Amino acid sequence: MISPQQMSRIGSGTWGSGGVAGKDNSSDEGKQVDALAYMISKGMNFVEANIWYSQGYSVEILAKALKRSGKKREDLFICQAIYIKDNKTLEDTNNELNRVFELFETDYVDTLQFSQGSFLRISFEDIANWIDERLSNQKTRYTSITNANLELLQQYHSRFKDKLFSHEVVFNFEIRINEDLGIIPYGIKNDIKTVVYQPLRRNRTANYNWEPLVKLASKYNKTQNQIILNWIISKGYLPLTKSENTSHIDEHLAALEFTMNDDDLDLLNNFKIPNFRQPEIDWNKSGVGVTIDQISNIFDREYLKQNNK
What we know:
about 300 residues; alpha/beta; 8-stranded parallel β-sheet; globular
């Protein structure tokens, strides 16, 4: 089994594999399996499995990729993300867990991850008791949470203590609200791993040629994406990346091969997007503001609107 100390510093995301919310029958399964197999073979041993993605097709692709990589199930740290969107009961969620067991030919996952939205539909205690049962019968080693506000993260940590492995958040060069609100600092203080999705904002950040990124890419002879990943990793965060192009995968992994000095890291840490105000976050789906999972997706629209472009 992979221990937290053996975790790769870049993990594999699966959003978009085989489709998005629905299955895309026109997607190139072979290419996607090959790409994920390549990532796994290169040592990217943290993977996220989510049955909601492409109606389970993404997990099928991931399981095939594991076999093609030549690695064993024990060589992976599998985070199963539970999105209670189509599921109406925890029994439905249990069926998702069993489906992952079946696909990976295993009887456990390494961590079970619930989102903030799950607790708006099913009570905290019901979900916590469901997780407790699977921790006790060793169907999962840990639990995790994603997109939680500070209050929920504290509550979850109080309940599960050292069995809370990670908090998955949106964080990138433009979107730092989870740091600003004290959510990431709370995780760091309490040894909760910070897993980052959309670290490169699906390659959109580099389109802006923000001055510090251009400067440091030139200084270190690296791409802007490599500067971003290296910076995120320097914080101790675990970014999730995905690509169907092996050269892009190699580019991401090469972000591990250099070290920026403290002054350059401070330059990145202290940079603020000029003339940009973060929208209000709608943590409870009240309809006022933007849900945290969409904050990165709407950056371009908001930035252009605020700057009259």
